[in-house]
Specification:
Layout lengths: L4 E5 L9 H10 L4 E6 L3 H4 L6 H13 L4 E6 L12 H21 L3 E5 L10 H21 L2 E5 L9 H11 L4 E3 L3 H7 L4 H10 L7 E3 L19 H10 L4 E4 L9 H20 L1
Parallel strand pairs: 1-2, 1-8, 2-3, 3-4, 4-5, 5-6, 7-8
Helix pairs in contact: 4-5, 8-9, 9-10
Length: about 280
């Protein structure tokens, strides 16, 4: 029996590949599952309108390749945030949430990672925070109806860059369908690389963390680094997550046009498994 599962963030692979090819590469390079991306691009948002035939084809492909989609990274709310002061954008945000929850239900996806933003491209204020809470309450009603867990990603902005900040909303909503899915790279930057503070912050969410994004960061740099190039302390972060009962991890990194992208997939899975197994086994 496996003691953990390691997933691959879909955007680590070229977008020119078919989803079938991405599933094959996920398994080929040592990952157990793929994390589906629904970002703010029209192409990815169109996935929310996949019909049942398209969904059945994906499910059959996953079965044939012995792979699965454990989670959806729903970053489309950057463009359509729950806390927007625009009523039209808030309505679009809730429609995106509803469609994502239904898609997850049909695909058998356990949880949706949601962005910890009240507003992204515009300033945050007391009104956007109030709208965010209002939208979150409506979102949780939808999620509980379909049995899908929503889990906050800890972000790169002050609004929700720590587990402690995410826990404020988890405790406020007080629902089994709202949890936390922290990004350990973002946590590391939020705590200025201090491993003891990262550990303390992760433990603050014990009982409410469903999985962990494993990502490399440097001070003020949040993406597009190779594993091992930054200051994320993987043994410490993974140990803290494990102490919280977490056994699901996703390697989060991006395809950036580099020719050796397939090599990077293998290197990432080897690097992460080494650190996970150093803690769990």
């Amino acid at each position: 029996m496996k003691t953990y599962q390691l997933g691959l963030y879909e955007k680590a692979m070229p977008n020119t590949l078919s989803f079938h090819q991405k599933i094959q590469l996920t398994k080929k390079h040592g990952f157990d599952f793929i994390e589906l991306s629904i970002d703010e691009t029209n192409e990815k948002l169109a996935r929310l309108d996949w019909d049942d035939t398209s969904i059945d084809i994906i499910k059959e492909t996953l079965r044939s390749e012995d792979c699965f989609i454990q989670s959806i990274c729903l970053s489309g709310h950057r463009k359509y945030p729950l806390g927007s002061e625009s009523k039209a954008i808030r309505e679009a945000s809730l429609k995106i949430m509803e469609k994502a929850i239904i898609l997850a239900h049909k695909l058998g996806v356990r949880y949706i990672q949601i962005a910890g933003y009240d507003e992204y491209y515009l300033p945050s204020n007391e009104q956007t925070k109030a709208y965010f809470i209002e939208g979150l309450k409506q979102s949780i009603i939808m999620a509980s109806t379909y049995g899908v867990i929503l889990a906050f990603e800890t972000m790169e902005t002050p609004f929700m860059n720590t587990v402690e900040k995410a826990m404020y909303y988890v405790q406020l909503i007080d629902s089994p369908y709202l949890k936390i899915y922290p990004d350990v790279g973002n946590l590391t930057n939020a705590q200025q690389g201090q491993a003891d503070l990262v550990t303390k912050d992760i433990i603050f969410g014990k009982g409410h963390i469903v999985a962990g994004h494993l990502k490399e960061t440097k001070p003020n740099i949040f993406r597009n680094l190779n594993f091992g190039e930054g200051h994320t302390n993987y043994p410490v972060c993974i140990q803290a997550l494990a102490d919280c009962g977490v056994r699901l991890f996703v390697g989060e990194f991006w395809y950036t046009g580099n020719e050796d992208w397939e090599t990077r997939l293998s290197q990432a899975s080897q690097f992460l498994r080494k650190h996970i197994e150093g803690v769990l086994e």
